[in-house]
Amino acid sequence: MNRNPLETIMGALVLLVAAVFLVFAYTTADLRQVKGYPLSASFTKVGGLTVGGEVRLAGIQIGSVTGQRLDPKTFEAVVDMSLLDSVRLPTDTRAVITSDGLLGGSYVKLIPGTDEAKLEPGDALRYTQDYQSLEDLVGEIIFLATQPAGASGGPN
User: Fold this and answer.
1) Which residues form the Mce/MlaD domain (predicted)?
2) Domain spans, the chain
3) Residue 17, SS3 per DSSP
């Protein structure tokens, strides 16, 4: 078979551009897990949270989800996280699983408390708020809208 040299050069060029794109995407995506100290939190439902997901404080990634497991006694989902060593949070910090927009994934949002004592490596966050899906919110709105007047227990 005779190959046209132009086809070979164009094929090599396409492969080179693809390799450059992959290197660029990998270096800018910041896909690595945050190394730091471990924390955990328990939730009744975690939605679409995945291992490798972000842990954010004030919108800035300060950690990542390192694992998920089911507590056999309480049947709650336990989320293991790793936080940057430079970020020491108060013991009354609250963890909320929230969504990153309609099409975005879930992440753990940390809301720092005011306690003087700080969380230590391996501690569990005591204050958590479960993931609330869009379907749950729509269901609540429909339920409230279909209630007869005065059925909510409020003033008539």
Assistant:
1) 35-113
2) 37-141
3) helix
Strands 77-83 and 37-43: antiparallel
**Quick one: 62 exposed, middle or buried, by C-beta within 10 A (0-12, 13-18, 19+)?**
buried
**CA distances to 32, 34, 44, 68 from 124, in Å:** 23, 18, 15, 13
Query: What is the number of residues in the chain?
Result: 156
- pLDDT > 90: what percent of the chain? 4
How would residue 34 be classed by pLDDT, with cut points 50, 70 and 90?
low
At 73, is the pLDDT very low, low, confident or very high (cuts 50, 70, 90)? Answer: very high
Question: What does the block give as tokens for 144?
Answer: 């409230």
